[in-house]
Amino acid sequence: MRARDARQSAARISLRKHRVFTVCEEARCPNSNACFAKPTATFLILGDRCTRRCGFCAVSGGTPGPPDPDEAHRVAKAAGEMGLRYVVVTSVTRDDLPDGGASVFAATVRAVRARLPMAKIEVLTPDFRGDVLALQSVIESGPDVFNHNVETVERLYPTVRPQATYRRSLAVIERAKALSERIRTKSGLMVGLGEDFAEVVGVLEDLRRAGCGMVTIGQYLRPSKSNIPVVEYRNPGFFEQIRKCARDLGFDYVASGPIVRSSMNAEEMYHEAGGGTDGRGSAIGSPTGMREEQL
Q1: Per the structure, how many domains does the chain have?
Q2: In angstroms, how far is the first alpha carbon of the chain from the final one?
Q3: Separation between Cα atoms, residue 245 and residue 97, nearest integer Å
Q4: Which of 2, 58, 104, 147 is the most exposed, fewest CB within 10 Å of its CB?
Q5: 213 in a structural domain
Q6: Per the domain annotation, does 292 fall within a domain?
């Protein structure tokens, strides 16, 4: 067995052994084999059933079960066994929970930090329905990178993300940065859903105004016939134009290409953007002027 195949196999064995999910598998990511071979993985917490039905997503919908109190420790054990230097933690959306699952994110970050003190940790969170206190609990747990994907342009939200709002997603990123100046912020979007070039640039401008420092842009690929269809397959020149626009707007790092995904090469992206010299992203208290519990 080649070394690459052996690493893939070992990664999958660790995941099964500790009964943890990855978004790599649940969302049918086309890059999963390459990531498992490094090895890297994006852990999917809070179960494999999402309370929302976004038009683009392959994760199953339905009624999720209660949070597993041991999940954070199982994720940490798997990450430790895989020898990860960079750990990405994401989740299904859990609108059924009072805090949207924020406390489980926080527990997972702390458990991973305890087992792998030198590893960098990125969280890719849902919007927590705009609950600032839920968001604050995640930031206070000390992730190095806070990632929340806007996914698409504002005009397409009713089709692509009908239970979310574009402005709320921007506010989540902005508030995360306000809660901790040291944390690195990141977002991602897909193209090929019917947007035009100017709209994509508009999203990038909005993200920069919200304090987002890293961005990923990739081609939407329809994961199944039940998902919304691809409107257009963008050529490499489109992605290069978008990359240049994003760099001109001042992003620290831009990944733009047909197979780019939000967590793809996350460790490399963090270091290329200047990570590792700015300390850990612990919160510095409630943001000045917070008057509401909703963004």
Answers
A1: 1
A2: 51
A3: 39
A4: 2
A5: yes
A6: no
Structural domain boundaries, residue 121: 3-272
Q: Are 34 and 15 in contact (CB under 8 A)?
A: no
* pLDDT single digits (tens) 164-186: 999 999 999 999 999 998 999 99
Whether 279 is covered by a domain: the verdict is: no
Read off the pTM: 0.85
As a whole number, the mean pLDDT across the chain is 84
- 23 φ/ψ angles, rounded to the nearest 5 degrees: -70, -25
Task: Give the list of residues 6+ apart from residue 266 with CB closer than 8 angstroms, or none.
Answer: 40, 42, 86, 88, 122, 145
Compute CA 36 distance to the chain's CA centroid, rounded to the nearest angstrom.
17
Please check whether residue 41 lies inside any domain of the structure: yes
**Token pair of 126 as six digits:** 């849902």
pLDDT at residue 26 in the model: 44
CATH number of the domain where residue 47 is located: 3.20.20.70
Q: How do residues 240-260 score in pLDDT, each as one tens digit?
A: 999 999 999 999 999 999 999
Distance, in Å, from the CA atom of 44 to the CA atom of 91, rounded to the nearest integer, reads 5
Share of the chain above pLDDT 90, in %: 64
Token pair, residue 256, equals 């733009």
Element housing 103 (H / E): helix 102-115
- Evaluated on CA atoms 213, 120, 72, 12, the torsion sign reads positive
